[in-house]
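Issue: copy button drops trailing tokens. Both records pasted manually instead:
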Amino acid sequence: HSSTTHLMPSSPKDLDKEIVRLASLSQQGKSTQDFISLLHTKNDIIFPLLQKRCEDYNGNPLELLQAIFRGLPQENVQSTQIRINAVKSVLSLIEASIAKEKQTLDMINFVLGELDTFPEEAHVEFLLRISKGFRESLLRDGKICEFLPQLINTVSKLDSVTYDQTIIQGFELKSKIIKDLCLCSWSSKSVINLVSICKEMSPSEDDLLLILEKIFSHIKALDIQELPILVYQLLLLSTTGHRIRTLNGIIQYIHNLDQSMKSGSSKKKMTEDNLRHVEGTILLHMNFAVKQDQELGKEFLRGVKQDLVPLCSFTVALLLSVARVQRFEEQVYDLLKNLVVSSFEESSKKIPSHWLEIIIKEVRQKKSSSTDVEKCLLETIKCSASGWDHITQSLVEIGVLLLDAASDKASQKMANVGSSVLYETFQYQDNESIRNEIIEQILSRILTRVPSSHHYLTLLCRILSSFSISTLEPHIPRIKEVLDYISHLPPSTTRALLKAVQPLLNENQSFQDHAILVLRKAMFNRDQNARVTAVLGFLELLAVLRLDAERPTSSQAEITPTNSVRFELLGFLKRSLSQQSSVREILYTGLHDIFRDNKSLREPILELLVPQFLKYFTEDENQVPLHLEQCVDNKSANIKVEEPLPHLLQTLQRCVILESKRSTPSELAQKASDTLQSLTSRLIKTNLSDFDLDKSSDFTTSREGLTNRETSLLLLGTYQVLFEFAVMREKSMETFETALSLFESFTKLENLRETALSTKTKKVEKDASTTDPPKPPTASTTLSHTKGRRPGSSSLTEAPKSELLYSMNCVLIMLDLLLPTSTGQAHGGPSSQSDKRSLTNEKEQVRAMLLGQSELQQAFFATALKLLHSFTSPDSPDPETSLLKYSTHLFPLLLNHFLLHWNSPKSNKGKPLGLLALECMECVVKYVANKETVEKLAQIMEVSFNRINNNYPDTAACLSDDAHEHLLSRSNPPETQIHGYIFKFEKMLRLLKIEDDTTYSKEGETIFMIIDHLLGFVPTQLITEHVTWVEQFMSIEVEVLPLAKSIVNLYLKICRSSIDLSNLMMLAKEIYSKIGAVSEEPASLDDRKFLILNNTTDKYIILATLSCIDSCLDDVETATNLLPSKKSLEANKGEQDNTKILKLKENICDRLQNIVETLLIIVSSCIVGNQFEQLVRLTTKLYKFMSTLTKNITESPPSPFRRLIEKIGTNLTPGIYQLLEYSTLNDDNKSKAKLRRETTLKPNLIYQIERYESILIKICKRYNLDLAKTLRRSQARDFRIIKSDLMRVSNHLDGSDDEAKKKTAKKQKKDETEKSKKVRAPNEKKGSKEKPKAKARGRPKKDLTDQEKNDTPKRPKKKPKS
């Protein structure tokens, strides 16, 4: 009954009732044969009767079916055939979808219960009948497939089955049935039911993969609301295998749904809210499935690690859902953290090789932007607001984990991701418990002083400044509690915390009052750190409150800090003027910032500073202008500075300079200015002896000497501050003459101090060590860092150095004025705009006067270099005073100075001006390069060289390069412009003529360092254009090692970026020619090109070359790791072009062959010493990588790989064994440490070689390849015992043992005698006759000799060194 044309044969009326009646009698043992005869003679009547009952409104086909089965005896052959026909009729009814749903389910359940009563042949017949319907595409609602699991499980156990007139095994028939099932078309209503049925069939791996492909091809036809049910069934199905493929299909489909909905191209009628709820249900199903099947969780994590599963926002959500399972919590968080780290490393890491850049572009060409982990995390957070409550806790934990891991400045990007995760979670989650958790995590990390606390402070500032006060109201009490511990926090943390809570200080009066109260308590604390914290806190409050104080308010109801509050804060700060020196320093520095930004507080600040200064200033011109003795406390146990007078003067003079720019300065400011001018003029006239500082002064570690040290430091700082005041106040001859006088005094005192410290201190210490006995340290002879003592104070052995107090503005003005005359040129520094109306003639007179001061020039270049080093140090200054702000004005000045002074005569006093200017330029370029601001760097270069072109045309002509001028155009990218400016620096190298004279070798080394910094921004494809001129410098015979290092490093950097490594191979040949060959053949020395390779530089160049080869090998490993694995290609079928991947593998093998050829040249050379050890490590790494590469060989390896294997087996391996033998025979000058290292390095190398060869042989046997034909065993590895040698050694050992025994016995006897005498002597002295203890110390002689036999060989006597 395969078609519906025979569904209605003619049948007698009420025949079905007759069958039911006879079946009832047959059950009672009556009329059984009549019942069988009726059904047998009218075999075709069962299907029409069942059909009739199905079509009737109240028809019950199950009654008729039960009557037929129960009325027929099971052991009868005819009965069995009738029952088989009845089952076939049921199959036809279900296949034709004639019965109603309840009727169908009743018949299916009944037949499934009766299947066990049928013979195995009947099961095969039923299965073939169903399969026939599959081939005819009669699968409609899939109900007929309910019979498949039971039938297939029975048939698959059979040894032989007839299928299409052929005998096959049962499991083969099972595979064919599943294939037929997958080939027919499925309705959308039957997909979910079929997935459940397929699981019960226990399919094989291949059959399951076929089923999954069929399911995912029909998944698009499902309604969106049915998706969670299907996913759950798929997860159950995945327990039989192919978990990765299942997860990949689910995630990819949901990701496609999400993308189509965002783009508006979705054909399904759904809203974003509906999709998010469906995804949330799927996440719950996944969480439940992982709890039940932990292998699913393991496979999912493995798939994400190996890129077998697409990484999108839903994947991240799945990971966070799995993280709620305790077993996978730590693994998921580590995986997400590693994904974030690796994504930033790949994006921010500078690709050092053009070859590697090409590989990376090819591999990542088809990767979508969804691989951005940060973007996926943030999208997940936005989606989580739609009911994904179970993953919000995971979001908080991963955010905290990322912030905790970002403990240093290098991991700033990771901190940004963690901060964004917590901030977005706080924003999109209305759940107060989640927000409380985030705030609590932030505050607890701040209080516990974790290394990443500054990142948490930044996040807190972002949250508090972004949300309204009503949102933050529940969290204010907890933040208040944190303020109570503010005195126990580091000062920097306190300052950042108060800056973070600025919105609360401005909007919440009680919070403001609480903060002031806490800081006031800290101010009265005895602990110095607490006082520093209080000062920083009050300064920050003044800076914060000024923003709202000067802003007009619309209503009186708004909370605004009044003048009384600010004056109260200044009153608190006034108390710190009587506290420790370090507290005052911080106060003075902070007051200048407040003075600059808050005009309404300028007068109160001056009222604070001027009286404090006048305490130490005397207006009587007959006396010393400054009472420095009041600034140093020499009465207490430890000599310390009480008043940091230079810092006080520095703040005061800067405030006066700022106030003088106003049209009408205040009276107090004018008074302060007059006082400073008076101090300057009087200090110039005052002799050092007036301060008890002269050649006879004591600068030793005595109390007087330590006092003089501190006094001289205060005076040196005062000279610097007043020098800056004179320079910044007015650009006139008079002021600069004053500045020069101050500089002379400064120089005189500094020379006096250095001379005294270098002579008298040594003399006193020498006299103390020879005449006086050693004494315990006392207060009069030592000075330790105590409270109130600033860092850098003097100690016993090292005197404190003078502090650099010049500002960058002052340095810029001086560098500008120290340039020779340049018409129409004026200084344009960041803060030099105060007065540009001074006459040009007077300025030129000042310039001419300063140019004659060589010591001043030297000092200010050294000062500029120190300032630049302070900017580039880890503890760099404020971002507001960042070097980026000054670099555009500083670098042109430095470049001008170098070009004008590079050939100036050198003196014995310090470095030449040209070199100092060049070192400053290198600091600026290094700083800007580390900030990764390529646009800023290009701008600096453009301004600098344009200034040269405009003002010094003769010098500019020496640097002109017509062939590369087009690269400097603004229309080009900044990277290309920097590429062009490198040629300018090459011209500067030509000016030095280092090929003829090494006088300017240090300058050449510094220029090469600058070029190296700039080369980091040049595109890799352009780097090789510099190889020509660098090779010219490689051809120079340089004997100065630092200069040679700079040239060689730059050349090797270019070599690494090239594609074919020909330049690196050329250098290897030069090494081979220079040091000779391992073999007997002499190396040729006639055609050497790189004369830089000489006896002075050869060792370094060999090590640098090996390091470059090592880096090239790292590039190859990186490229290999980027290639998709075989499983990844199968999981992402159709997303990768296998032909392109094969070409990439060939490219990698070609690169590796170039490395091997270069290494072969060096292996053939006479390498010894440290270079030999580095070479052994490198070759060990190569063979280890080759072992890994060989394991991934397929049945048909590419031809470049064959050539590589042949090159290694034929040339490299024998050459390495030859080099090892040469090193053993010829390198005699080996230390013990070197021998110890080689005993590890050489065996490890041989092990890696043989491991690689064994893997290659196994692979060749597996795939029947001929790659191992080039392998040659260089040495025999078996062990042979030579009898003659064994006998000779054993006889020698026996003789030596006898001699050793005799000597040991004699020595033992002598020792025993001496011990007995020592024991007997005290006993005799006491008059005692008993000597039990003396005899108890030793054993009888016989026992000692027995012990000697066992112990003597274990401790042989050490022989003296030859």
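Record 2 (pasted manually too):
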Amino acid sequence: ITSININSNTMMMIDLEAEPSVELGTDDDNDRIEFGTLAEQRDEADYDDRIDADDDLGKGRIKFPKDKLYGRDAELRQLQDIYSGMCGKIAPGTSLRRQSSLHKLKEEEDEDPAAEPTRAQQQQQQQPPQPQQNRRVVFLGGFSGTGKTTLIQHFVRQISQQHKQLPTPIYIEGKFSQLQSGDPFSAMAQGWNAHILKWIHLATPEQLAKLYKRLRRADLTLESEWTAVLQQTLLPNLPDLLEHIVSVTKTTTASSTSSRSEGSNKSDPQQHDANTLNSSHVEDETAGRKRLKMSTASLEMSTITYAFSHFLRAVCTSQQPLVWMVDDLQWADAASFQLIKTLLTANDIGRCHMLFVGAYRSNEVTDLKPFEELQEKVAAAARDEESAEVVTQMEISTLTPDHVGQFIADSIRKDTTEIEPITEAVYTKTLGNIFFVQQALEELVRQNAIYYDVMCFEWRFGDISRVALEDSLSDDVVQLVQNKLLSLPPSLSQALAVAALTKQSFDITWLSPLVAAVQVAIRESGETKDDNDMDNNNNNEEKDTSSIPTLQKLMKLAFDEGLVLHDNAAVGMAQVPERGQQQWLGFKFAHDRIREAACNTVPKGTDEYDVVLKSIATVLLDQYDRMNNCRSTHSGNNNYTTVTINEDIDWMMFTAVSHLNSISPRHIQAVPVAELNLKVGKLAIAKGAFDESSVFFRAGVERLENYFGMSVWKDHYDLILALYNDWLESEHTLGHYDRANFCVDKVINHATSLGDKLRAQRIYLMLQCGPDNRAYKEAVDPGLEILSLYGVDIPEKPTEKQIRREKFRLQLALRGRNLMCLSTFPIASETPQPGVPEKGQPAPESPMAEEEHTEELSLTSSKKGKTAPYTSDIAGPLIISHITLRNAWLGGRPEVVQMLGHRMLRLALAHQTITKNLAFVLMALGSPSVREEKYERAFLFANASQAILDRFPREKSQDFLMSKVILYSALIVLRLPFRDAIEPFMDMYKGLLAVGDSDTSFGSAMNGMMLYFIAAMPLGSMMEPRLLLYEEAATNLGKSSFITVFGLYRQMLYNLQGGIQASPNPCEIDGPAASERAIVAKSEGPSAKMNNRDIGIIRLQLAVIFSDAEAMEEQLKRLDPYPIFDPPFPRQYWRMTYMGIAALILSRNPNYGGHRRRESCTQLPFVRKREKELIPKWADACLDFFEKLSGFGSPNAQPVYACLKALDKPKIAAFDNAIDVAGNYGLLNLVALMNERCALWLLEECPFDDEKNTFLATEYLKVSMWCYHDWGALNKVNQLERQYSVLAGAMRSKPPSALSSTRRQAYALGVRQSAAFSVSSD
């Protein structure tokens, strides 16, 4: 970290009124406002001195210097150096030759970081995905009012207007507030959404087309789930931008088409560039388009981070970097802190050209651990990447007396020697804090210590001593601002107070009813004060002070006094009103101290304060309900589960409920407040802000319990239960297990039915898995105990006899039907209905109970054989059974899995209803059949599970998607062609990443990429970007094991493709993507075993393809210790395929103990032949494995089995059959391999005429080379050309591919029959 101590002799002055992120220039300036960059500032300070004099004469107010910094040149140069380094520029003075070289490289760089690399970048792109560290981070510290924001604003203005050699940045500015009301990501969204409005209103069609191209590549379209995530959290205006771009592009495309149709034959390159979007894409986006419907499902932080990182990578380019300032970082909410921390340490964001400036008050963060952790993590990440220059720490001090004197002299246009008493007095009170200095000067003007002489047109001050001046000034800057507010009209002070109690930026249109409501409430409460609150002497003014025209006049006065700034982004407008017109509707406080002072005009802790807060909350809730077009829960509606998200007005709900929580219980009823806390807590969960949701749920619980005591569980049962249930789930998500346990105990002890206890029981079982979520085995017994409450009695250690009896009962329940009958049953409700009767009433008997039970058990009771009355709803027992079954399956208790799984199927058959969890049950029961090689039974469960999955096509929950991944990898791929399973795995990767389950998500991606290689998908332009995407995402989330796996796959791809990125020996892993030596050196424990297996599989396939017998034997020995059953199934299939091929190839090689193959492929399984040697043992095992799979109709096993049979008993007919079968399934790799092995067999062993055999072998080798070429294994093509001289020029005679490259990417269909057979027929 570069530490910079700013010398007190080089200080700056602040310009509170300048607002470069909002004010825009003239039409000429707009040419440089590309995507909302800065234009030249024009304000009253640009006019002549006489106009300023008239203004001062009329208003008697000081005109502070604008756009002027004092002694800040060194700091501006340092920021410029940081920015230049981020942009890849170099400091002035560099040689012209070097500058020309850099300029040439920059011209070759693609503006989209997600685009394909250019030729100049290929060498660098072949390296592992190490970040280029274009990101820069500046932590800017200083006391409040020292000029942190103005320094960055002036720096951006300087870059935009003066340094033409540097790219003009996008400038985003947001500010957290100490008075914020729990609205998550408020400051993060503030600047971005204002800038999106500028894009909509100011960007040209050409700019929009380029932006949309990058957004599409980042998977940010109107249909994308990532767009929905960002709309729900950070970028509510993003869909508006996308709709606007599509509309503009469609209009532009239609206009250009019409122009061409009128007879113009000349094409305009610029117009063509503006129409880069394909019209079909436009129609796809706009056809039947409705606004995105927001999901109220909870979002994980990893999901939000992933989506926002995609957006940043699309927006930030080298041609237009991003300068993003977040002010008052020490007050950021927990969700924003987490997001910023991840963004500033993520490797993929490291390549974005982004300068992040986190400004904070250094005197207010000593006890705030999250802020300290943020700085430490960013600094540690920079050290790990050996990029210390990425992070810079800056500390801004206050002004020196000389600079204070110069500032005062410039403000009142005097020489510094004339104002020494004023300078000394002001500096003594303010200690050089520029904001304090300004307020002190205005206070002296109000007290006439400084006054404007209208006769001489100059500022004067009397013969007042320094001590007298000091006595006239307060030591508290907030008190000075309050004095200023008291000197203004009471109606303005009241309006500012109301605005300060809402948000930093405010809109007059919604401020007007708030002010009116506060006035009425204060008048009715009898708290009106003659001098401070309202002007009772003017009834007309009192009636009109809340109207929009009056508020505009009042805010114009506040603007002139420097209290507020214009901010029409607050009302969704990007254009400012014409000069001279007073049409401003949006404003923001010029400084948070001003907002604090405005809030303090209403004394806290008083009845008046409660009345004001209640009035504001009531109006905000009414506006929220009206704008959201739904009924509010505080109006008596007890629907505690429905939340409607409207991203533009959600702040109203957060602010209103926060105010209500601050009001004394004497002034408001407890139940409506608790209901609102429940609703806004759910809203926070939908935005991914679990910390904030926990605060609201807890506030609702405390409000009810403090008012009603324990009787709340009787009087308001549904409400308190809903609050506790949501609270416990939020605390569990946050990892606050003690609080979660507290909530679980409350629900279990007070809920009156099993249905009401279900959510608490679910969290309880998850808590039993331990903090690391790995104690699955220990969590089984508590689950069985809870199931006994539902009448489902499962012994802790079922015997074989009990399991057989359970299976028999299932057969009886099926009544001769197939398990597929389950897919025809209706879907059960996910919300169990209460099924426990009131005490004293008889309980219905459970159809699953093994015996009569009369005594109820608590959650942790040790009594066995007793159960509570059974609920008639199936969802409860199935949900608990699913969790328990999963824990038993992962914890290694197969007997419980069998017993409980069959009982759950009986339960579903008895009620003739199903749930989404039933597919996992079928998987758990069917997977042992794969291990036992009972594939017919496994197929039965696979078909049934697939049918149930198809009943839930839109289900996106984490548990469901995780079960679906396991189902596909364990069972469904037994019957589904691998090529058809690739996209489902990719979709599950996205879905799981969206719900925050990164481990299972990357597992799904790993399976998908395995299938890419197994199914012989083309090794073209699609595979490497996908691997890079997964590898970078895994790096970003710190998943080291998946980083290794994807790196291995990428290096395998390079070895097959050839080129400088391939390993020197293609059968080894030693290249830019992965190095076997490095992986083995850093692997230990279970990861070492897994990495050893994965490396062995990859190297074995490479050895088979490149015909390296020595490497085949080496890798066979390496993989020999691993059992046949090695889930997931794709990896087992992959390993067995090439172990079988390698063993059969080596079995015919005299150098490896040439061994004649058996006469039949129906010998005993491999496990009974351990006395055999390595090569024949695995040859037999693999033949047995694929023979059984093929016999039961597995489409993936048939081509491999045909190939193994051809290698086992080589004949031309056998090879032709293998080629034909593999070609039918599109397996170009096996088609090529079988053609090559057939040619080698003809040359070595076939007792025919040598000339004929040579001709046939040559034709087989040609087809082999052509298939390798179509597959993309160019390194193998080169090897064949080098090895066989007869193949020289064979590629020139290659016939056209059967399908176009585009369709071949989708279907990858290869040669359907033996090419040699085709040649002979010709």
